Amino acid sequence: MRIARYRTSDGRIFAGLVEGDAVAPVAEESTAYMADAVRDLIASGADFSPAGPAVPLADVKLLSPVAHPEKIICIGLNYADHIRETGLDTPSKVLAFVKTAHTLTGPYQDVVVPAGTTDQLDWESELAVVMGPDGVFGYTVADDVSARDAQFADGQWFRGKNFDGFCPLGPWIVTADELADPHGLAISARVNGETVQDSTTGEMIFKIPEIIAYLSTYMTLNPGDVIATGTPHGVGMGRRPPLWLKDGDVVECEVEGVGLLRNTVRIK
């Protein structure tokens, strides 16, 4: 199944089941603070049966497939070729950091960056895991947008990874049963149509079961939690000279069998 979260033309938000070029509503999201229809359906073990007629995807606005996960955990330095391009040391164990829910933005929405806050805006195409009640619920695509100057100026990565909108996610969640092997998928990124990342999830140093097992030693992973599993080589900071995103640039992040993000950078 492909599970989406979307807004209709009248402003209502739904969790829905995507089939072909259409989406059928499963449940309407309430207007309550921190409401998240997809997260709640995952937690309840719902079967995602449609509750109404399907409408064309072209007639709705796809949103981040989860709105308020309890945790967005990102895995750093998890591809050997990416480590080499950064010049950083290879971690001996899973290196995790967090993004908060305010970083989430939709698969086709703009990434808006306040003018004067960074001169080193970068992309990171990633396969992301969405947790269920008893393990992996499914997979989606993430762009771990990063302000490298802020990331490395502070002695820790939080500011550089946590600007508003710095985690485009989507376009939907592909349930785990649809992917026989999440470590055999092509993963890529393009900037203004030019391929900048081109690898496979098989190059991960720490595979998904190992990541989940390690994180579970010190935290409870709850339904709807997102784990971005790391990025391969080809990020802007690894190029000589570095390539930084600028106003109007279009970034596409794609994972085979999962989906495509397309976000435009707006510096205001």
UniProtKB/TrEMBL annotation:
Keyword Metal-binding: yes
Keyword Metal-binding on entry: yes
One BP annotation, GO: carboxylic acid metabolic process
InterPro entries noted in UniProt: FAH, Fumarylacetoacetase-like_C, Fumarylacetoacetase_C_sf, Rv2993c-like_N
Cited Pfam families: FAA_hydrolase, Rv2993c-like_N
MF-aspect GO terms: isomerase activity; metal ion binding
SUPFAM superfamilies cross-referenced by the UniProt entry: FAH
Positions in coiled-coil regions: none
Transmembrane intervals: none
Assigned keywords, A-Z: Metal-binding
UniProt domain Rv2993c-like N-terminal: residue ranges: 1-65
Residue span(s) of domain Fumarylacetoacetase-like C-terminal: 71-266
Alphabetized PANTHER family for the sequence: FUMARYLACETOACETATE HYDROLASE DOMAIN-CONTAINING PROTEIN 2A, FUMARYLACETOACETATE HYDROLASE DOMAIN-CONTAINING PROTEIN 2A-RELATED
Family membership noted in the UniProt record: Belongs to the FAH family.
Protein name (Swiss-Prot/TrEMBL): DUF2437 domain-containing protein
Species assigned in the record: Herbidospora solisilvae
Phylogenetic classification of the source organism: Bacteria, Bacillati, Actinomycetota, Actinomycetes, Streptosporangiales
